[in-house]
Please model this.
Amino acid sequence: MGTVDFPVQPLSIALAAEASFVARSVDTHTEHLQETLERAGRHHGSVFVEVLQNCNIFNDGAYRDFTERDVRDDRMLMLEHGKPMIFGKDRDKGIRLNGLHPEIVTIGENGVTEADLLVHDESAADPYLAYMLSRMWWPDYPVPVGVLRRIDRATHDQLMVGQIQDAITRQGQGDLHKLLVSGETWTVQG
Model:
């Protein structure tokens, strides 16, 4: 019957680990997948790309409910930086915030306009929007696909080089021989 645990959310974990590029694509959407992987490959920093991929043996049809050609427009949210979160075959549905939670609305109903919708910002300094998107899943929400977060910041190796340069500036170049024979030393006789 399977596990009773709550499923792991890979994108949420990547965001919590401070990955600077986090995205999702689908194996059958080859152009989108290629573009996403190319952007990931050009990014300098930690990258995580979740690929929703069908496996004929272990999870055949697992994502069919929202990836099939006849339903994906209504059940997937294609993220575009700087653009409102609009989806649907007629491009008449959108995502807005209701307090701290995403809400699906229909443009044109109850006075809802495009200006009421969330605008995707993949380069936001804080990961809040990306984290919210990482938690959205069918059937409660359309599944967000695209780059959730892409920020430019110093990489680990750049930070290490900076730290070493700072230490040299503060304490001088250093002498390995002097370090090895300084302080408490022991003579071991065999």
Notes: The first strand starts at residue 21 and ends at 26. Residues 10-82+120-161 form one domain. The chain has a mean pLDDT of 93.
